[in-house]
């Protein structure tokens, strides 16, 4: 039984690592002891690392997070073949791309939701509730459907049209509400229905207690192919992905399999950038006003302490990339055959901005497919007649000899 | 070098298997000797099977068609980590789903295009041209971009909006032309530009000479996980996928690794169904009038002899599924966590229609993600106020207690 393989031993406060809590229930509001009115501290999951089987990191590759069951919380919810995504070398850009668009709902969020929906099943909740207008909501809905749990998605009115269909498809109850009402409603729904929250309910971001553990598997997979890269560039909203990937490498060091962690670089939209501000000001987490950006998937007003830990412990940095830098990186990735949503290109945009030489491979995590973008569906090519002269003119305009 | 590993020895006519041609150039108009004014016969690629290394089928799983290089034409074009897709067991539906939405452009077409664009690179063509309003066109554009080749996509005006953005993203020249002008224009462009055609140019379908070889890898992957299934249900337009998967199993038999091939069931939209007609009437290939259907990805007026071979040689059948059957299968797959486009659900719809017990596993090939459907983007949930009474009413309507 997969569930019996977990070596998870409890929850540990990131606010004070000496503070430990039992594994159940997941502390969905973060660490109760260290959190204050202005800063919420998350918890992470601790494991009985001494008992990790030696063969865990000698497995053949493939999908399915259950292959990493010893280093994950118990997987009570069934999987959809998440993870096991390709690492694609793009020599023309000097990077490897970890292609997370190759997950069951075509984003990295499936790794988190396999774990977070498992937590909901583990506590016997009748359903899950999530505030999201994109990848996270759809992924939660898919894993809830697979597990036979109900799902409520609190979306915002401004979501891209294709994402509306995406959220609906899995049978979730999708409610579009004003953006600033989403978190209060999430708390209310949790209280009134007993549904398990799989997105954040706290002042600064703590998110789900178990969810980021799923992202560790990205590190395990990269390590199996490349060893420890020199640097990782990660599109960053609340920083759960950033933390998870860093933690995976930190565990490999702890287990004696790796000698160091890669430097992790958070890549936030310049329109906001709460993590960059927190790091610059020496704060655990903070909030900022957010200006306009099309990188809606990582457009966050608040940061979380997890991301601060990952940047500081890895000697990384918090970078700000603007929409033009992301759009250029997005275009260049597509011209190499990989079409991602704008937010997903933040990693390559950050790497380019840094203009730093690294002594080893550089990995950019690309989080999600191009179908999720704002503006998808607006490119309707004009219909032209079948006349050869017209077609030929268009080809000549495009520098194609005919 | 990957290119040196290919054991491809020539092209063989499907019209008369004793007729062999050199491997180069790819016969993009099918077999010149056996084709007639009414029926075009495709060619396939032959290999030096005696030299297939024993360890080929003992590799660990993973993406990248180059792992199967001995049994593919030379791979001159670089890859994008295509293939290595998960096989997901859905006990509630009694099937395994081969999830081809997990490819680089989120459809099975990437396996074909790695091979077909390699053929274009192999003949030194300056570019590729394809007639497609969906998955095939986008996939061709992606592989052409990766290989540094130009790409022309002849799309039709009625393509779904999201697909318009998809086709544009990879930098191809996208020309929307009247549907019945696409094949004549494809031939003209091929003649005038020297671009290599990666879609069909013949009366009945022959398609690309090398392309379907890429689909064989689906059989190799299924075999590694399950052995030989009892039955395969395959969404069918021109039948290249059907043929490729069947041929992969036929090769496993030839190599002494498997004892039999699975029965392969073609699942065509009932609105057309040229293969079903060809099989019923004992014809190699035929054409029909096509009525309205939303399954645009497999909505074909002509069939190809490849599909006829696969159905007959495997004791399979050509099934017709209507839009309502596909829509129900699509909904049920999404309620199990897997959102596919309507055409992709034809496999499960066909399995259900057959109501047959099989003595072994049943595999449905799901070809592509739900983002490609007509109607995606039309589901915009109504925005409701943040008032708890309103939200509570909506939850109660959805049978959620609160």
UniProtKB/TrEMBL annotation, chains A, B:
Coiled coil: none annotated. InterPro entries: Ser/Thr_Dehydratase (IPR050147), TrpB-like_PALP (IPR001926), TrpB-like_PALP_sf (IPR036052). Its cofactor is pyridoxal 5'-phosphate. SUPFAM superfamilies: Tryptophan synthase beta subunit-like PLP-dependent enzymes. Keywords: Lyase, Pyridoxal phosphate. One of its GO terms (molecular function) is L-serine ammonia-lyase activity. One of its GO terms (biological process) is L-threonine catabolic process. It comes from the Bacteria. This is Threonine synthase.
């Amino acid at each position: 039984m997969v569930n019996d393989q977990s070596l998870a031993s409890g929850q540990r406060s990131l606010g004070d690592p000496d503070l430990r809590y039992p594994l159940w229930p997941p502390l969905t509001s973060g660490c109760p002891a260290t959190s204050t009115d202005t800063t919420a501290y998350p918890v992470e999951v601790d494991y009985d690392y001494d008992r990790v089987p030696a063969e865990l990191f000698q497995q053949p590759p493939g999908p399915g997070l259950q292959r990493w069951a010893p280093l994950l919380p118990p997987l009570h919810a069934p999987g959809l073949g998440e993870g096991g995504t390709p690492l694609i070398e793009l020599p023309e850009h000097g990077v490897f791309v970890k292609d997370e668009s190759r997950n069951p709902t075509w984003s990295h969020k499936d790794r988190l939701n396999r774990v977070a929906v498992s937590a909901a099943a583990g506590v016997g909740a009748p359903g899950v509730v999530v505030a999201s207008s994109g990848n996270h909501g759809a992924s939660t809905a898919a894993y809830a459907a697979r597990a036979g749990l109900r799902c409520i998605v609190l979306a915002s009115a401004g979501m891209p049209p294709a994402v509306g269909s995406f959220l609906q498809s899995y049978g979730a109850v999708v409610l579009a509400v004003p953006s600033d009402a989403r978190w209060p409603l999430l708390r209310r729904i949790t209280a009134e229905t007993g549904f398990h929250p799989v997105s954040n309910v706290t002042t600064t971001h703590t998110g789900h207690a178990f969810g980021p553990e799923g992202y560790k598997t990205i590190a395990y997979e990269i390590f199996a192919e490349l060893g420890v890269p020199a640097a990782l560039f990660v599109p960053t909203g609340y920083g759960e992905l950033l933390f998870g990937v860093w933690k995976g490498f930190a565990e490999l060091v702890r287990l004696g399999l790796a000698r160091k962690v890669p430097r992790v670089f958070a890549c936030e939209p310049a329109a906001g950038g709460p993590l960059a501000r927190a790091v610059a000001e020496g704060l655990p987490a903070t909030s900022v006003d957010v200006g306009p950006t099309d990188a809606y998937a990582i457009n966050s007003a608040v940061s979380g302490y997890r991301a601060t830990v990952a940047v500081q412990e890895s000697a990384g940095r918090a970078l700000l990339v603007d929409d033009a830098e992301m759009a250029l990186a997005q275009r260049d990735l597509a011209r190499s055959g990989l079409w991602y949503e704008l937010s997903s290109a933040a990693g390559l945009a950050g790497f380019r901005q840094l203009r730093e030489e690294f002594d080893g491979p550089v990995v950019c995590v690309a989080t999600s497919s191009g179908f999720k973008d704002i503006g998808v569906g607006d490119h309707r090519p004009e219909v032209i007649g079948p006349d050869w002269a017209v077609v030929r003119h268009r080809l000549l305009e495009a520098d194609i000899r005919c």
